[in-house]
Design brief:
By secondary structure, the protein is α+β, with helices and mostly antiparallel strands. The chain is built from one helix and three strands; from the N terminus they run βββα. The protein has a three-stranded antiparallel β-sheet, with no helix packed on it. The structure holds zinc ion. Zinc ion (ZN) binds next to loops.
């Protein structure tokens, strides 16, 4: 946008001279900032006035680079946290699976023992009947 003369408001198309000026960084800027300051001369009233031109030169770390690095660091931190959560979830899942497997195995062993016990009980019952029958046979002459 073309600057206007502060005295008579006439638009001034281009500066007579451009100076590079080191200025304090504005909010959101990092490091020392160098700006182009144009010295304008009004063609109507001959007043001279300075205007900061659009271009900004960063003498130290450019703000965009600083933001990029900061964002990258934050992303890495988030990724590491995600990884921690994933590892923790996997560890938990593994433990649960092991527990489930152990439980399954235990259930199978118990089922097997119960079945064996059932067989033994039947066998014992059979032997008892046999004994009773034999005793009965012996008792009767
Ligand atoms: Zn003027």
């Amino acid at each position: 946008m073309m600057p206007a003369c502060p005295t008579c408001k006439a638009p001034v198309s281009s500066p007579d001279r451009v100076y590079k000026v080191v200025v304090e960084p504005e909010q959101g800027e990092r490091g020392v900032v160098q700006r182009d300051v144009g010295m304008f001369r009004c063609p109507r009233c001959d007043a001279t006035f300075p205007r900061v031109l659009g271009r900004v030169h960063y003498l130290l770390v450019p703000d965009t680079e600083f933001k990029r690095l900061k964002k990258e660091a934050e992303e890495n931190k988030a990724k590491a946290a995600d990884l921690d959560v994933t590892v923790e979830a996997l560890r938990k899942e593994k433990l649960e699976r092991e527990e489930a497997l152990t439980q399954q195995l235990r259930d199978k062993v118990i089922a097997g023992l119960e079945s064996e016990l059932g067989q033994l009980e039947k066998h014992v019952e059979h032997l008892r009947e046999e004994r009773d029958r034999l005793q009965h046979e012996v008792a009767v002459p």
